[in-house]
Design brief:
Layout (H helix, E strand, L loop, with lengths): L10 E4 L9 H28 L6 H29 L4 E3 H34 L4 H4 L2 H27 L8 E2 L6 H7 L5 H34 L4 H29 L8 H26 L1 H23 L1
Parallel strand pairs: 1-3
Antiparallel strand pairs: 1-2
Helix pairs in contact: 1-2, 1-9, 2-3, 2-9, 3-5, 3-7, 3-8, 5-7, 7-8, 8-9
């Protein structure tokens, strides 16, 4: 990624989450706790799925990718936010800002796509169970994962590449705690019409296509469930989808709350608080939702802990 453009700015100043110094330290410990839970939860799910052969199915393959994305997604934003809470001068270099922007766009797009693929996986599992092993073969799952990451890369490169062509003159104070697209566009002293068009097209695609696909998938799933005569079958079908529905609702709901408010209703400070939930809290919630609501994950975790304690007891006896 070429950082050597015509920008006159070599670094940016981040205003941060709040200007009140007396709550900076409590916020530091709060977000440190959230980050620790996020890393432990997502890394735990990645490890659990990787080690347990019973979880080597398409559903958990995509959950593995979701946890990996959430782990990286949070790590792009939270460490810098934590540093800003305890640092007197909240600066980020021009290259660092563009790098953060790229990976932020990459992982948020990847999350949209992987949640879409997970909805399709549930559709095939419930509506076409006899064709499930063929339709969601290892080769197909690998191909879908490649499409997720390639699509996310293209979108992130479009945003970052257009940002690199802009010139930033004297204004270098970002009214945010991270390098986001809209706050950066406000600082540019050159025409941003192309950037705004790219944002409209890419974000429209990243949100529109996944939302439509998920709505169609779950409409077909609901129709199929209602046709089932067995109460047990309905209950099992609902239980396999419930965790994913909650995750989708939290992720897209928090994003919609942030972006669908008129600027007159949602101030910049309120927007930053909304972004915190969208970028920091959601990656923490996903592994918790799948851990507490998914029976197979809980069973696999209990087995792994049982093996660990047995080995520990054996070593202790020796």
């Amino acid at each position: 990624m070429d950082m050597g453009n015509s920008s006159l700015v070599t670094e940016f100043f981040l205003v941060g989450l709040t200007k009140y110094s007396e709550i900076q330290l409590p916020l530091f410990f709060l977000f440190l706790g959230i980050y620790i839970v996020t890393v432990a939860g997502n890394l735990g799910l990645v490890t659990l799925i990787g080690l347990n052969s019973h979880l080597h199915t398409p559903m958990y393959y995509f959950l593995f990718n979701l946890s990996f994305i959430d782990l990286c997604y949070s790590s792009v934003i939270t460490p810098k936010l934590l540093v800003n809470f305890v640092s007197k001068l909240n600066t980020i270099s021009y290259a660092g800002c563009m790098t953060q922007l790229f990976f932020y766009c990459f992982f948020v797009s990847a999350e949209c796509y992987v949640l879409t693929v997970m909805a399709y996986d549930r559709y095939v599992a419930i509506c076409k169970p006899l064709l499930y092993t063929v339709t969601m073969s290892p080769q197909v799952c690998s191909l879908l994962a490649v499409i997720v990451y390639v699509g996310a890369f293209i979108g992130a490169w479009a945003h970052t590449g257009c940002m690199l062509r802009l010139t930033f003159c004297d204004a270098n104070t970002i009214n945010h705690y991270m390098c986001d697209i809209l706050p950066l566009l406000e600082l540019s002293c050159t025409n941003t019409h192309i950037n705004e068009l790219v944002v409209l097209i890419v974000v429209g695609f990243d949100v529109g296509v996944p939302s439509l696909t998920i709505i169609i998938s779950y409409s077909l799933i609901l129709t199929s469930i209602l046709r089932m005569h067995s109460t047990e079958g309905r209950s099992k079908a609902f239980s396999t989808c419930s965790s994913h529905i909650i995750v989708v609702s939290v992720f897209f709901g928090s994003g919609a709350f942030m972006y669908l408010h008129p600027s007159s209703v949602l101030s910049m400070d309120q927007g930053k608080v909304s972004t915190v939930f969208y970028t920091i809290v959601v990656p923490m919630l996903n592994p918790l939702i799948y851990s507490f609501r998914n029976k197979e994950v809980k069973v696999a975790l209990n087995k792994l802990l049982e093996i660990y304690y047995k080995r520990r007891k054996f070593v202790f006896c020796i």
